[in-house]
């Protein structure tokens, strides 16, 4: 059984391999955008290019007077040297589609091919090919360009190596975590390494701070609510016999729940300030808020589930085992309009140990047809929902 016509399935595999071979970094997706718009033009679908950098937006007509269903794919690659050994491996040194965005782009183009054949869509469908997801800036920039104007519902998804190919993973609740960064600059007093009593040692203050920050998750947050505080950088000092007068810590905070997210950020600030005060140091703390948590509301997860069942059958629709503590900027769209985010099983035997963002990441190309079929189904199911809403106004 094939989910989509065989010829299209082959075409999508070829397309994915081209995209994979010529990956482009966030904000530089020129060639990718050209491939996308050429494919859409071949289907007779008009598109806008250069949206928020190298984004592409295409509208497929449907019932007049009904808000559109938005389907979103991300298009950018990562600064990673590919080591997959695939025959279509990246030809761009140090750049790789290591998160499967080549697959996401391809499945949405597959959906475009399927939807362009449909006569009476219950609602118009808007396709977003979003750049710069890896930087976490693409979605916000697209929204500022007005891509959600006239939109009623939005859907997206990600490949997932934890599930077998042919499956779609749908759950209500948290799917991805929020991501915020913080920088703490510690200002102490430098001195000779042999005269600690004349110093306020920024390395000691910073070390105590790092250890104390670890107690936020272990002692302050409800253990049933996943959260992370990680310090990824600690810079200080110039010589073995010089006590550092300054140090800088940089870290990241992740949470699946907006209240926990706020709690973590408040605690980071309180602990950093208190430890500094305890030792007579001063601090300057900057919090850079990033993407919000990505949460599927029950009703919307229900719609996504119906589309998944339509596409692959009940037995191939699975619940999410655990939410990902990584961030996904699709959450910015969900802050504005309702929608849901799913996962497409894409496990490659022998490569389960290579996660997204690893130099050996790969996915099973069967997921391309699954994604295309799912997006076609959700466009219709969500479209009918919007049509009903329009009729009841
Ligand atoms: Ni990704």
Rounded Rg: 24 Å
Uncertain regions spanning at least 5 consecutive residues: none
Per DSSP, the total helix count is 9
**Strand order in the largest sheet:** 1-2-4-3-5-16-6-15
* Main CATH class of the largest domain: Alpha Beta
The general outline is elongated
- Average per-residue pLDDT, rounded, comes to 97
DSSP strand tally:
16
Topology pattern, helix = H, strand = E: HHEEEHEHEEEEEHEEEHEEHEHEH
- What name does CATH use for the topology of the largest domain? Aminopeptidase
CATH superfamily of the largest domain: Zn peptidases
In short:
It contains nine helices and 16 strands. It has about 400 residues and is an alpha/beta fold. The model has no long low-confidence stretch (mean pLDDT about 95).
Give keywords.
single chain; 393 residues; alpha/beta; Aminopeptidase; Alpha-Beta Plaits; 8-stranded mixed sheet; 4-stranded antiparallel sheet; 16 strands; 35% helix; elongated; binds nickel (II) ion
Write structural notes for this entry.
- It is a single chain.
- The chain has 9 helices and 16 strands.
- Helix 5 (202-220) runs antiparallel to helix 6.
- It has an 8-stranded mixed beta sheet with strand order 1-2-4-3-5-16-6-15, with helices on both faces. The protein has a 4-stranded antiparallel beta sheet with strand order 10-12-8-13, with helices on one face. A two-stranded antiparallel sheet has the order 7-14.
- It is of the alpha/beta class and 393 residues long.
- 35% of the residues lie in helices and 23% in strands.
- The mean pLDDT is 97.
- The longest helix has 27 residues, at 366-392.
- It has helices at residues 6-21, 30-42, 101-115, 138-144, 202-220, 258-278, 298-312, 331-334, 366-392; strands at 47-51, 55-60, 68-74, 125-130, 151-160, 168-169, 173-176, 180-187, 191-192, 227-236, 242-243, 246-255, 282-288, 294-296, 317-318, 339-345.
- The protein folds into 2 domains: 6-176 and 293-392, Zn peptidases (Aminopeptidase); 180-288, Alpha-Beta Plaits, CATH 3.30.70.
- The radius of gyration is 24 Å and the shape is elongated.
- The structure holds nickel (II) ion.
- Nickel (II) ion binds at residues 99, 101, 158.
- The site of nickel (II) ion has 3 residues, from loops.
């Amino acid at each position: 059984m094939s989910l989509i016509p065989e010829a299209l399935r082959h075409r999508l595999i070829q397309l994915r391999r081209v995209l994979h071979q010529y990956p482009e970094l966030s904000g530089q997706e020129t060639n990718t955008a050209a491939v996308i718009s050429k494919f859409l033009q071949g289907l007779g679908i008009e598109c806008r290019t250069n949206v928020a950098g190298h984004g592409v937006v295409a509208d497929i007509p449907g019932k007049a007077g009904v808000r559109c269903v938005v389907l979103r794919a991300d298009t950018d690659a990562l600064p990673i040297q590919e080591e997959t050994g695939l025959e279509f491996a990246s030809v761009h040194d140090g750049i790789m589609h290591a998160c499967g965005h080549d697959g996401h782009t391809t499945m949405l183009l597959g959906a475009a091919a399927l939807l362009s054949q449909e006569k009476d869509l219950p609602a118009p469908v808007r396709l977003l090919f979003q750049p710069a997801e890896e930087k976490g800036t693409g979605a916000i920039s697209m929204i500022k360009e007005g891509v959600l104007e006239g939109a009623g519902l939005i859907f997206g998804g990600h490949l997932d190596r934890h599930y077998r190919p042919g499956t779609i993973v749908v759950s209500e609740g948290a799917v991805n975590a929020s991501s915020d960064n913080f920088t703490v600059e510690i200002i102490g007093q430098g001195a000779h390494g042999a005269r600690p009593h004349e110093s306020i040692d920024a390395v000691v203050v910073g070390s105590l701070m790092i250890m104390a920050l670890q107690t936020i998750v272990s002692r302050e947050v409800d253990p049933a609510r996943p959260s992370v505080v990680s310090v990824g950088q600690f810079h200080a000092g110039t010589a073995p016999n010089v006590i550092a007068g300054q140090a800088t810590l940089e870290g990241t905070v992740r949470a699946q729940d907006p209240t926990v997210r706020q709690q973590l950020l408040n605690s980071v600030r309180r602990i950093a300030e208190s430890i500094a005060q305890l030792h007579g140091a001063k601090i300057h703390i900057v919090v850079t808020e990033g993407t919000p948590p990505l949460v599927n509301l029950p009703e919307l997860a229900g719609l996504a589930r119906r589309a998944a069942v339509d596409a692959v059958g009940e037995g191939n629709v699975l619940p999410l085992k655990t939410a990902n503590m990584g961030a996904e900027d699709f959450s910015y769209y969900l802050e504005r309009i309702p929608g849901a985010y799913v996962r497409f099983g894409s496990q490659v035997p022998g490569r389960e140990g290579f996660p997204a963002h690893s130099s050996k990441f790969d996915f099973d190309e069967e997921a391309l047809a699954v994604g295309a079929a799912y997006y076609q189904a959700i466009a219709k199911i969500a479209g009918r929902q919007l049509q009903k809403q329009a009729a009841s106004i």
